[in-house]
Structure prediction request, 123 residues.
Amino acid sequence: QVQLVESGGGLVQAGGSLRLSCAASGLTFSRYTMKWFRQAPGKEREFVAAIGWLSGSITDYIDSVKGRFTISRDNAKNTVYLQMNSLKTEDTAVYYCAASFSLDIKTGTPQYWGQGAQVTVSS
Prediction:
């Protein structure tokens, strides 16, 4: 019943921007920490960004995307976003949305995952 659906992926030139969306259903969206992960070809899946439950005033990013990516949420729309600016070729990956029922955005294994959205950054 729980479903996370990513959208907004595609092909973009280096230096460009892209916004990913993840629409959630079947859960009380505001009670979940929302996270973005990515997996590049031949590499392990890695954490990218997280936003805390309710207001989402607390966020967390890996160092490689700080200053370029912004995670946000709209509880009225049950949607979490990842705004990606100044994209680099190394950002190329499948991006996954995930929901975690945890009070701490840095802990807890996500209970639900989306199917992923391809982001390709060309040089």
In short: The chain has a mean pLDDT of 96. The radius of gyration is 13 Å. The chain is about 0% helix and 50% strand. The CA atoms of residues 28 and 78 lie 9 Å apart.
